[in-house]
Amino acid sequence: MRVVIAGDANTVATTSAQIVSRQLIGQPTSVLGLATGSTPVILYRELVRRYEAGEVCFSRAKSFNLDEYVGINPEHHQSYRHFMQQHLFDHINMDPVATQVPQGLADPQIECTRYEAAIKSAGGIDLQVLGLGANGHIGFNEPTSSLASRTRIKTLTEDTMAANAHFFGAQEQQPSLALTMGIGTIMEARHILLLATGKHKAQAVKAMVEGPVSAMAPASVLQFHTTVTVVLDAEAASLLDAQQYYHWVEKMRAEITREKLESS
What we know:
Elements lengths: L1 E6 L1 H18 L4 E4 L3 H15 L9 E4 L1 E3 L10 H8 L11 E2 L7 H14 L5 E4 L21 E4 L2 H7 L12 E4 L2 H5 L3 E6 L5 H9 L17 E6 L9 H21 L1
């Protein structure tokens, strides 16, 4: 697991966008796994900027989103389809047919099976973007989720619903169920990029990076993945014991890269 402590949220965005951009430049037909939530917004804003500047192209890429609320219309202003259109898809040149989000109005069991098959048919996910819940969830895989789970229906915890409540109006019914890629599905991505910012994520970050692997901290399973990049701001990294080591590793990586460029 590569841990990058990027300083502030803006640096998290630029560092993460560079990773996504390199993926698309090196493999224009990449299959991206995408996430919603407040942290990925900063990444999408930077990717849109790079697209508008002609630095990255999405025209041959495909995407699969992690999750969607059950029973919500894709045109609803709080659906994750709407979120992705608003923050990314409407501003880049990705083919709309190539952007998949679980269908919240479909029969849940049939949709979960269909979604898994669609990911497999696309050749699997090359780069999976993840946020991190304050309780350690990835996607909507809440604590106690099976570490081998596949795309399925999940009941959201009270904490997760409370964290998302401000997105819904006082008269709106907030969904308590979601369709989500399973942890086993996420772990099959070839490269995983996780972003976390803010002091309220610090305990979850510590459990993920330095704690024991446990279903009570679902993101800790990423310790078993061979290619994970975790990009944090200083506050999210504040409880990590090995901060000095993570900074040292990044310094050495930068020096090796510089030496290679100078010798080429």
